[in-house]
């Protein structure tokens, strides 16, 4: 018997979903456009990987960077409407978009494991979208402060900051060139805090806009 309390996705969740999907599209496409620009710049100058800056004069690279900025803004705005558990996994769709466009535009081979990984991203994202919970609404800035100063969050944030500093200043210089997981770890740890900030900052921004009206 279907749960009578289930009311489907709210209008805010739908807005967040649309913004998150738009973000994935822009960000996924931006990687391909930027790489196209980097390859074009490398053909006429010093590669960026060895210290060259000729890509800064390449319009394609700037188009890709602009697309990434637009995508990040859309992703940031999505957190104002939908819970993080809905928005964050949809970022994985940018991987699929990049993989498909790389195969079509850059002529890069997409192997069977890549296809399987893309399918897993689609299944996982779809499952989360269909079963995303309703998020408790934050009513005031004071409530945000109370949540941010809870012992559990303060301990977690302190632990993450310490781990990131150790990775950046000790492990990354020693092993970063041969083990990509150190940079992935830094990105993931910082991302876990930036998601929390993205949940709060849109609310504060909207509140300030409302007070100024």
Automatic annotation (TrEMBL):
Signal peptide feature range: none
Subcellular localization, as worded in the UniProt entry: Cell membrane; Early endosome; Membrane
Main localization category: membrane
UniProt-recorded Gene Ontology molecular function terms: magnesium ion transmembrane transporter activity
Membrane topology listed for this record: Multi-pass membrane protein
InterPro entries: EmrE-like, Mg_trans_NIPA
Keywords: Cell membrane, Endosome, Ion transport, Magnesium, Membrane, Transmembrane, Transmembrane helix, Transport
Spans traversing the lipid bilayer: 16-33, 60-78, 85-106, 112-132, 153-174, 180-211
GO cellular component, one term: early endosome
A Pfam family recorded for this sequence: Mg_trans_NIPA
Assembly description: Homodimer.
Family: Belongs to the NIPA (TC 2.A.7) family.
This protein's name: Probable magnesium transporter
Species per Swiss-Prot/TrEMBL record: Lithospermum erythrorhizon (Purple gromwell)
Lineage, top ranks: Eukaryota, Viridiplantae, Streptophyta, Embryophyta, Tracheophyta
């Amino acid at each position: 018997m279907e749960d009578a309390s289930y009311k489907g996705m709210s209008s805010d969740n739908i807005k967040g979903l649309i913004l998150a999907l738009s973000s994935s599209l822009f960000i996924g496409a931006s990687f391909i456009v930027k790489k196209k620009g980097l390859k074009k710049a490398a053909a006429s100058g010093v590669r960026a990987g060895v210290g060259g800056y000729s890509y800064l004069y390449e319009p394609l690279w700037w188009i890709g960077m602009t697309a990434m900025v637009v995508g990040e803004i859309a992703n940031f705005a999505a957190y104002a409407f939908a819970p993080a558990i809905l928005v964050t996994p949809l970022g994985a769709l940018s991987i699929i978009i990049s993989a498909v466009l790389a195969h079509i535009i850059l002529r890069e081979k997409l192997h069977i494991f890549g296809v399987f990984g893309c399918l897993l991203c689609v299944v996982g994202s779809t499952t989360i979208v269909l079963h995303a919970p309703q998020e408790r609404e934050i009513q005031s800035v004071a409530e945000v402060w109370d949540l941010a100063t809870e012992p559990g969050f303060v301990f977690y944030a302190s632990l993450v900051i310490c781990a990131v500093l150790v990775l950046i200043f000790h492990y990354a210089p020693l092993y970063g060139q041969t083990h990509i997981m150190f940079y992935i770890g830094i990105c993931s740890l910082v991302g876990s805090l930036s998601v929390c900030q993205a949940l709060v900052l849109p609310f504060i921004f909207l509140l300030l806009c409302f007070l100024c009206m």
